[in-house]
Amino acid sequence: MSFSRLVSRWQGLALSLVGVVATVWLGFAGQLGLYIHPRYSVFTLIMAGIAVVLIVGAFAVVPSADDEHEHEHGHDHGPEHDGHGHGPEAHGDQHGHPVAHDALVNRNAPGPGRPRRSRRFWMLAGTAASLAVVAAAVATLLVVPPSTLTSSTVEQRSINSSSATLGSTSAQAASTTDDTSAYTVKNWSLLMRQGVGLDYFAGRAASVTGFVTPDADDPDNVFFIARFVVTCCAVDAQPVGVAVYQPGWQSSYPVDSWVSVDGTFGADPSVLSTASIVLQPDRISAIDQPSDPYVY
C-alpha cells in the first residue's frame, strides 16, 4: 500500500481520535463548560468513551497494509484467482485472434509519462492536504488553549437581540419583586428587552459582572458589561448586556477585560447610543474571568 493510500485510509480515524482526546481532556480539566452547557458534560464524556471503543475497534478491523498488498498481489497475478494467465496464449482480440503479449502490454501501458506524472502530482497533493487537515485539528484542539467567547462574537450576534433564548420567567419575577440582589446581567437585560421602562429602573441599584464590549453607536462614552447566554453549546450562545455610561472608559478597561460594576440605573445621557437606560457606575473593579463565564 502506498503512503498516500495509507494516509487516506487513516485520516478519518485520526481526526476522530483527536476530537475524542480533546473532549476528554477538556472534561477532566473542568473546561468543557466553555463549549457546552454544563448539563451535557456527563453525556458528552460518556459518548467520548463510546467513541474510544469504536475507534479502537476500527483500528483492529481495518486491514493492514500488508493484508491489502497480499490481496492485490493475488488478485492481479494469481491465475488461480481469475483464470487469466499472462502468457501470449491467454490473450486474443475481439474476433478471437491471438494478440502478441508485447502488443497487449503496449496497448495497456499508461502512454507518455505526462499522465502518470500528473496522477502522481495530484496524489501527493491530496496526501499533503490530508496531513495538513490532521495537523490543523491537532493544533486547534490540543495545542491552542481553550478560550471563551469574546467581543468579536458579540459583533456577529447583536447584543440583546434575541429574547427567544432567554425565556420570560425571570423577567416576570423581576417586575413583581423589589429584591434584585441576585440579579445578573441576564436578568437586567431581559427586563429591558421586554420593555420595562425607566419608571421601574430609575434609581434602582445593581451590581453586575461581565466582560467589557463597546457600544457600537457611542463607543467613546458607553460600553456594555456583557455575558453570553448558553442554552446548548457555544454555537447558539447569545450575548446579553447592560449599558454603562462612563466617558473615556477605554483608557482604564480594555475590551474583553472582566469587570464588576456597582451603580444605579438612570436615563442615558448619550445622544448617540440607542440604549435608553444605562447603569451609572459608582465603582468599577477589574476582576479575573470567572471559572464559568456564561449564564444559563
Automatic annotation (TrEMBL):
<dbReference type="InterPro" id="IPR015402">
    <property type="entry name" value="DUF1980"/>
</dbReference>
<feature type="transmembrane region" description="Helical">
    <location>
        <begin position="42"/>
        <end position="62"/>
    </location>
</feature>
<dbReference type="InterPro" id="IPR048447">
    <property type="entry name" value="DUF1980_C"/>
</dbReference>
<feature type="region of interest" description="Disordered">
    <location>
        <begin position="66"/>
        <end position="98"/>
    </location>
</feature>
<dbReference type="Pfam" id="PF21537">
    <property type="entry name" value="DUF1980_C"/>
</dbReference>
<dbReference type="InterPro" id="IPR052955">
    <property type="entry name" value="UPF0703_membrane_permease"/>
</dbReference>
<feature type="transmembrane region" description="Helical">
    <location>
        <begin position="121"/>
        <end position="144"/>
    </location>
</feature>
<feature type="domain" description="DUF1980">
    <location>
        <begin position="198"/>
        <end position="296"/>
    </location>
</feature>
<protein>
    <submittedName>
        <fullName>TIGR03943 family protein</fullName>
    </submittedName>
</protein>
<feature type="transmembrane region" description="Helical">
    <location>
        <begin position="12"/>
        <end position="36"/>
    </location>
</feature>
<keyword id="KW-0472">Membrane</keyword>
<keyword id="KW-0812">Transmembrane</keyword>
<keyword id="KW-1133">Transmembrane helix</keyword>
